[in-house]
Structure of 4-hydroxy-tetrahydrodipicolinate synthase:
Amino acid sequence: MFHGSMVALVTPMHEDGSLDLPALRRLVDFHVENGTDAIVAVGTTGESPTLDMDEHCEVIRVTVEQARGRVPVIAGTGANSTTEAIELTRCAEKARADACLLVTPYYNKPTQEGLYLHHKAIAEAVPIPQILYNVPGRTACDMLPETVERLADIPNIVGIKEATGNLDRARDILRRCGDKIDLYSGDDATALDCILLGAKGDISVTANVAPKLMHEMCQLGQERREKEARAINDRLMGLHKNLFIEANPIPVKWALNEMGLIKGGIRLPLTPLSGKHHETVRQAMRAAGITF
């Protein structure tokens, strides 16, 4: 259903932490102009944990409105409360998002049966297409391939963002699920290898600052033009790694501020990028040909 480079979009903020919606609109246009294949609003990179319900829904609404159908919008609507996740997913459906991205419930540590019932309940409550999101390094909750296989039988569960970076895990999901759902990488450093295995694209942090190159790399990977894709990926590898030198989205918001695309606002408990890392991120940006 979706493919290519799908940016995990930051949520622009003023220095006081309030939402900067004009900057959000400019970012959407920036991605449309630079070939991004889909926009993911209010995911991890969009600071979903610190946006309240009204802000969360407003960012989704504005992103969809500004995209104007030029590029699909996938709304992050996951929560560790099933009821809250359903409410957010209904909000995204009302805003006419093209799909929703639902992270596994964090902190609660549900069983695999709990994960199955959580996602099943959301899918049955809201008919919008839904993409599972497994990122155990953040959630302390790992959705195993056998659970993904069960959920793949639910008609409006259409994909999974697998962010472990484990290619054996990706192979297992592809083997189990076949064409029932699409696999997307959620780890920029291994995304090309995942695409070459059969993933349909990458939900990407790097695409925030290098959208054109990420689009080209993903497209070449899907076309099995491996040599050309790896040449681009080599240029991007510094960003793939160093945009996580501190917790995402700290480095990527700093980089976008350096590019003049957003202001420096970020919400506690996250803090601006430490000065000792500035030059490291700058070097990665230079290697990718990013203009400051």
